[in-house]
Amino acid sequence: MHAFPSRVPSALPTSKNPATLSRLYARPGFLLRRAHQISAAVFEDECRGQQLTPAQFGVLTVLRAHPRLGQSTLARALGFDKVTVLRVLRGLEARGLVARESAEGKRNVSVLLTPEGERVLAEAQKPAEKAYRRLMAPLDREQQEQLIELLQLLTGELEDDARAAFVPPAR
């Protein structure tokens, strides 16, 4: 196993700190949350011209591949809960990037990209790829593949414990 340099403050055991911080900083949940914060910051920095968050980019990407998805199906396609998908959709709708249509009343609402949403998503492809490369830059190719494989293993094995279901849409 490699020892990776870290800018996390040292938390060596002391009389006031009996290794609690060092255990905290080494916990997978802490590191995954921190990695997510960094990933989101890098993405938002690279996509600042498009003013997109990772969640918004995800919604636009799924809708590009699967037009007119229902809101619940869209939420599951990204592993979002209903509140999160509604919050993201409201922001995208306010910017004119998506539109919601109801077939029979408000219960069956489908979501689609607008032409402006298509344009912004197309414009965001290069910055999003740059964000991906920037995030993965500290790792060599083998480590990048290993990281993705381990994250897929972890999320796949523990999917039943998630608060929101992840169900990719049918092709």
Describe this structure in words.
One of its GO terms (biological process) is response to stress. Residues 18-156 form the HTH marR-type domain. Pfam families: MarR_2. This is MarR family transcriptional regulator. The chain is mainly α. It has one domain: Winged helix-like DNA-binding domain superfamily/Winged helix DNA-binding domain (Arc Repressor Mutant, subunit A), CATH 1.10.10. The protein has seven helices and three strands, in the order αααβααββαα. A three-stranded antiparallel sheet has the order 1-3-2. Helix 3 (54-65) crosses helix 6 (115-136) and helix 4 packs across helix 5. The model has no long low-confidence stretch (mean pLDDT 91).
Sequence of secondary-structure elements: HHHEHHEEHH
The average pLDDT value, as a whole number, equals 91
| CATH topology (fold) name | Arc Repressor Mutant, subunit A
Q: What's the CATH class, please?
A: Mainly Alpha
Distance between the termini: 39 Å
Helix content: 55-70%
Got a strand count? 3
By CATH's scheme, which homologous superfamily applies?
A: Winged helix-like DNA-binding domain superfamily/Winged helix DNA-binding domain
Shape: globular
Largest sheet: 3 strands, antiparallel
Widest β-sheet, arrangement of strands: 1-3-2
Any idea what the CATH architecture is? Orthogonal Bundle
Structure class: mainly alpha
How much of the sequence is in beta strands?
5-15%
Number of helices, where a helix is a run of at least 4 consecutive DSSP H or I residues? 7
Q: In the residues, how many domains can be counted?
A: 1
Unreliable residue stretches: none
* Backbone CA Rg: 19 Å
Organism: Ramlibacter humi
Pfam family, one: MarR_2
GO molecular function: DNA-binding transcription factor activity
Domain HTH marR-type: 18-156
